[in-house]
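Project standup — Tuesday

K.O.: blocked on the structure for the chain from last sprint. Re-posting the sequence here as requested.
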Amino acid sequence: MEADYLRIECSGRLTAQDFLQLAEAVIKLEASLGHAPNRITNLTEVQQWDVSFLDIAELTRIRKATLFPNLIKSAVVATLPVHFGMARMFQTLNKHPQIAVEIFSSPEAALEWIVAADQT
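H.V.: unblocked you, prediction finished:
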């Protein structure tokens, strides 16, 4: 946690197991906080993707079934085409009325959106 938001940094090889363990850790954190914090997920240091469409679909299926106590902003930082493609897949599959997912090319732009007052 940084200030009022969660910062997630991914690097190296990202496996399906890593991806699902990260999701479980975020769910546990949300439960312990009593709210779902806004978050910035930085994918720019991921060099190898071993996460499939089905892995992302499973996570978004779990999240779609969750009723959150608040609205959530989820910023994804992606610079390379592969990073952007994975982020876009997550954004497309994650159609939840309480979660706004946006993709940014820099951590600074993501943070600017996260700290903005509106909960779009």
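K.O.: great, moving the ticket to review. The chain has one domain: 5-115. The domain at 5-115 is CATH 3.30.750 (Transcription Regulator spoIIAA).
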